[in-house]
Structures are given as C-alpha cells and as structure tokens.
Design a protein that fits this description.
Order of helices and strands: EHEHEHEHEHE
CATH superfamily: Cobalamin-binding domain
Largest sheet: 6 strands, parallel
Radius of gyration: 14 Å
Number of helices: 5
Number of strands: 6
Helix content: 40-55%
Strand content: 15-25%
Number of domains: 1
Mean pLDDT: 79
CATH topology: Rossmann fold
CATH architecture: 3-Layer(aba) Sandwich
Strand order of the largest sheet: 2-1-3-4-6-5
Shape: globular
Length: 162
C-alpha cells in the first residue's frame, strides 16, 4: 500500500540570479496546500540542489530560473539526478523561458510548461495530479516526470502550454 505522506518539495534558485520573489511565492503556495517545502535560497549549483534533494528525500525539485540559464542548468540537474538514481523525482522549473526553448526542454523530459497567468491553485493541482498518476502507473508516490512553469516578476505563474 502507498503511503499518504505529504509531498516533499525542494525549491531552489540556481545560478547567479538574485531575484527570488517568485520562488518564495511558489514555496508559500505549495506549503499552504499542505506540501512540505524546503527552500535552499539563492545561488545554488546543480550539485548543491541534487545533494540537498537526496538528503531531504524530496518528491519534487522546484527550480526558479530568471537568468536565461535554463538550457544549461536544467540538463545538468537532470544528469545529476540520473547519476544518483533519482529518476523518480519530479523536476519543476519556473522562470522566463523563450518559446524557442520549449521543444528542447520537452525533449529532455519537461512534462508541462506554465506561461504567465496560471493560478497557484493550477500549479498545486497539477503537482497533485502527477502524484495520482504516478501512484496509478508506478504504485508509488514517485515516478519520473519533469514539469516547467513560468513565473512573472509579480510572482504570478503562467498557463499550461499544449
């Protein structure tokens, strides 16, 4: 039988980007929705993020990237997760992602892209929905999936792209 433990989410700001308002808004929304949230803070390396995720036994990693470095950071995080046999961790990325980068991110496993305008509740429901899908498909809380969201400077996430 599958445990009904809370979804554990690690939220991090990788790279040199110093703007963390969106990450804090997402962290609070997830916490208010009953998830356990670990916020690592600013200027995290992919190695620091994956190490903390392993130590905290998280179900979801939330990366907030506004610097434009998503094409370098996200693949590195995914590689490190695979090296550490953490393929079952859901990776959620927030930030300003140009349309021309969407296909490439989907090819490396991005499950959804949220553009500006999505409500916090939509993000929470999406993560919970993935949990239910994982439980049905894998028989456990964790199952491989990568999700992408975009958060504007106001902290408002976007709508899912088709």
């Amino acid at each position: 039988m599958v445990s009904d433990r809370k979804i554990r989410v690690l939220v991090a700001k990788p790279g040199l980007d110093g703007h963390d308002r969106g990450a804090k808004v997402i962290a609070r929304a997830l916490r208010d929705a009953g998830m356990e949230v670990i916020y690592t803070g600013l200027r995290q390396t992919p190695e620091m993020i994956v190490t903390a995720s392993l130590q905290e036994d998280v179900d979801v990693i939330g990366l907030s990237i506004l610097s434009g470095a998503h094409n370098a950071i996200v693949p590195r995080v995914m590689d490190l997760l695979k090296q550490n046999k953490m393929d079952d961790v859901i990776v959620v990325v927030g930030g300003i992602i140009p349309d021309q980068d969407i296909d490439g991110l989907k090819k490396i496993g991005v499950g959804a892209i949220f553009q500006p305008g999505t409500t916090m509740d939509d993000i929470v429901q999406f993560i919970r929905g993935q949990r239910q899908t994982a439980r049905r498909a894998c028989g456990s809380l964790k199952c491989p999936l990568m999700v992408l969201w975009t958060v504007r400077a106001t902290g408002t996430p976007g709508t899912p792209a088709s």
